[in-house]
Design goal:
Layout (H helix, E strand, L loop, with lengths): L3 H23 L6 E3 L6 E3 H17 L4 E4 H5 L11 E8 L1 H6 L5 E8 L2 E9 L4 E6 L4 E3 L2 E2 L12 E3 L8 H15 L5 E3 L4 H9 L5 E5 L3 H13 L3 E3 L12 E5 L2 H10 L14
Parallel strand pairs: 3-4, 10-11, 10-12
Antiparallel strand pairs: 1-2, 4-5, 5-6, 6-7, 7-8, 8-9, 12-14, 13-14
Length: about 280
C-alpha cells in the first residue's frame, strides 16, 4: 500500500529545494525591503514570491489540502488549524538575516494531519543543509541521521533565543530579564542565529542544547518541531506544559531536565495566539 504522507513529504522536499534556489539567486541581487507591523518586521518581494511558488506547486498536486503561510496570513488569510491535511509555510525564516545577507536563512514547512505534525522540512539554503523528519521515522540532515546532544546539565549547555524589538517596555524588560536569568544559572552561553527553524535544527543536530522563544508563530515552529522531536529532543510550552503549535511560544531542548529548568527560569509576557479569530 502506498504511503500518501511520504509522497507528500517527498514532494515537499523537492519544492523546498526549488524555493531555496530562488532565495540564493535573490541574494545575488538588490533586495527590495518593505515593512509590516513595525520598523523591524520586514518582508521582501522574495518572501512573497517564494510562498506563492510553494503554495501553487503543492496546491496543483493536492488541491483539497489547506495552507497556513506567513505572507498569506499577513494579507488576511486564516491561520486557524483544522483537521484537514495542512501545510504550514514560512517561505523565508530569517527575513532580517536575508536582508542583511547573514547566512542563517531557511525555508520551513510543517505538515499536519488532524492537527498533529506528520513531517517537517527545513532547508538552510545558504548552508545547503536540508533537515527532514517524518513522525516515528527519525530526523536527518542531507540524508544523514541526526540526534540531539543528550546533555542534561544546563551549566554545560549553549542556549539559543532571539532578541527582538518590543514596543511594550514591560515585555522588553521581561525578555531581557529572561536572558539574564538563563546566563546567570550559569550556562556556557546564549546565541541568537536569527532563524527559529534553524535554531530548532541546531538543537536537533546537537550543536546547541536548548532554544526558547516567546512571540514567534506556527510557521516558524512547525517544521523544526518535527525535526527536534524525531532527533530525540524535548519540546514543551514555556510554562512546562505540553507544546501547543498555535501558542506562539516554545522551549526545545536536548533533555527534559534542561527544558524544565529553562521553564522555571523564564517569565512569560502576553503574545496572543495564531488561532485567535479576528474580532
Amino acid at each position: 500500500m502506498s504511503d500518501p504522507w511520504q509522497e507528500c513529504m517527498d514532494h515537499c522536499i523537492a519544492v523546498t529545494r526549488k524555493a531555496g534556489e530562488m532565495i540564493r539567486e535573490a541574494l545575488k541581487k538588490d533586495i527590495s525591503v518593505m515593512q509590516k507591523s513595525s520598523p523591524v518586521d520586514l518582508v521582501t518581494e522574495t518572501d512573497q514570491k517564494v510562498e506563492a511558488l510553494i503554495i501553487s506547486t503543492i496546491r496543483e498536486k493536492y488541491p483539497s489540502h489547506s495552507f497556513i503561510g506567513e505572507e498569506s496570513v499577513a494579507t488576511g488569510s486564516s491561520s486557524i488549524l483544522t483537521e484537514n491535511p495542512t501545510w504550514i509555510i514560512d517561505p523565508i525564516d530569517g527575513t532580517t538575516n536575508f536582508v542583511h545577507r547573514f547566512p542563517f536563512v531557511s525555508v520551513s514547512i510543517g505538515f499536519t494531519v488532524k492537527k498533529e505534525i506528520e513531517f517537517g522540512v527545513v532547508y538552510s539554503c545558504v548552508e545547503d543543509k536540508m533537515y527532514t523528519a517524518r513522525r516515528g521515522k527519525g530526523a536527518f540532515c542531507n540524508g544523514e541521521p541526526i540526534k540531539v546532544s543528550g546533555q542534561k546539565d544546563i551549566t554545560k549547555s549553549v542556549v539559543l533565543t532571539e532578541i527582538n524589538f518590543k514596543e511594550n517596555l514591560d515585555h522588553f524588560k521581561t525578555m531581557m530579564c529572561n536572558i539574564q536569568n538563563i546566563l546567570t544559572i550559569p550556562v556556557h552561553g546564549i546565541r541568537c542565529p536569527g532563524s527559529a527553524a534553524v535554531n530548532m535544527c541546531l538543537v536537533a543536530c546537537g550543536s546547541a542544547d536548548a532554544y526558547y522563544h516567546i512571540g514567534i508563530h506556527c510557521w516558524d515552529m512547525a517544521g523544526g518541531a518535527a525535526i527536534v522531536t524525531e532527533a530525540g529532543g524535548v519540546i514543551m510550552d514555556i510554562t512546562g506544559c505540553p507544546f501547543d503549535l498555535m501558542s506562539r511560544r516554545l522551549i526545545t531542548a536536548s533533555s527534559r531536565p534542561i527544558a524544565e529548568q529553562i521553564a522555571r527560569q523564564i517569565q512569560q509576557f502576553p503574545c496572543g495566539r495564531d488561532d485567535e479569530e479576528s474580532s
